Amino acid sequence: MASYAELLAQKEALERQIIEAKAREKAEGISKAKAIIEQYGLSAADLFSRRTGSAGGSGPRGKVAAKYRNPTTGETWTGRGKAPKWIEGQDRAKFAI
Questions:
Q1: Percent of the chain with pLDDT over 90
Q2: Higher pLDDT, 55 or 73
Q3: CA-to-CA distance for 66 and 84, rounded, in angstroms?
Q4: Per residue in 74-86, pLDDT tens?
Q5: Is residue 47 very low, low, confident or very high in pLDDT (cuts 50, 70, 90)?
Q6: Contact criterion met (CB below 8 Å) for 75 and 86
Q7: Distance (Å, rounded) from C-alpha 71 to C-alpha 45?
Q8: What does each C-alpha distance from 9 to 25, 40, 93 come to in angstroms?
C-alpha cells in the first residue's frame, strides 16, 4: 500500500500532466478554429452575434395581441400557454375578440 507522501507525489505528477494535456488540446483547438475562420472568411460578428439563422433575433419582440376576452370580468388571453380557467373546456369562438 502506498504511503501518504507517495500518493501526494502521484497527485502532483497527475496534476502537471493534466495541465500539460489541457494546454496542448487547447492549442490544437485554437489552431483548428483559426483554420476554419480563415477557410470561410468569418469575422468576430459571425462567430459571436446573438442572431441565429436568417430571421432569428431580427428585432425586439413585442406583446402578442389578445385573442379572447372573458365577458364577465374583461380578462383577456392571447391563446398562448395554458388556458385560463374561465375558458377551459368551452368553445373558444364565443370568447373571441
A1: 66
A2: 73
A3: 13
A4: 999 999 989 999 9
A5: confident
A6: yes
A7: 50
A8: 24, 47, 76
DSSP E strands: which ranges in the chain? 68-69, 76-77
Report which of 82, 83, 78, 57 is spatially closest to residue 67, judged by C-alpha positions.
Answer: 78
Residue type, position 61, single letter? R
Span 11-19, mean pLDDT?
A: 97
Which triple of cell numbers denotes residue 4?
Answer: 501518504
Phi, psi of 77 (to 5 degrees): -145, 140
* Residue 68 contacts residue 96 (beta carbons within 8 Å): yes
- Residues with Cβ within 8 Å of residue 70, at least 6 apart in sequence: 76, 77, 84, 86, 87, 95
Here the cell at position 5 is: 507522501
Q: How far apart are CA 82 and CA 31, in angstroms?
A: 49
